[in-house]
Amino acid sequence: MVNNVHELRPRVPDSEKITINLGFVDLGHIDLLVQEGFYANRTDFIRTAIRNQIERHGDAVRQAVTRKSVDLGLRHISRRELEAARDAGEMLDVRVLGLASLAQDITPELAHATIASLTVLGGLHASVAVKSILADRIR
């Protein structure tokens, strides 16, 4: 067995686990649809329902993304990007619908000096120290 294999880049999860509370009647309806073969399981039903609602409101989402200048999908912020902003005397207003990922080698000081605001609709991956120093700037 090879013991000298190293991961070049940590794997970013492609989903976020959430918890919801449902009434017993709603849950019973879902279970019935699963039992009748319309869906593979509860999760399949819930994902399908969410996707249908997102599609139903697709025009409104697209307009909001355009109006608010939001990055859609994965937005990775590197140390190099923040250093360039710092060197240019700029502060970044980061807006993401999806996943915002700040590189693990970003120091709290660099993040504080270069990120004016961080708005994430979805998930945020950053070190605990960076999240802590940006706490008052995260919306």
TrEMBL record:
InterPro entries: Arc_rbn_hlx_hlx (IPR013321), RHH_8 (IPR041088), Ribbon_hlx_hlx (IPR010985)
Domain of life where this protein originates: Bacteria
GO biological process: regulation of DNA-templated transcription
SUPFAM superfamilies: Ribbon-helix-helix
The protein's name: Arc/MetJ-type ribon-helix-helix transcriptional regulator
Organism: Nitrospirillum iridis
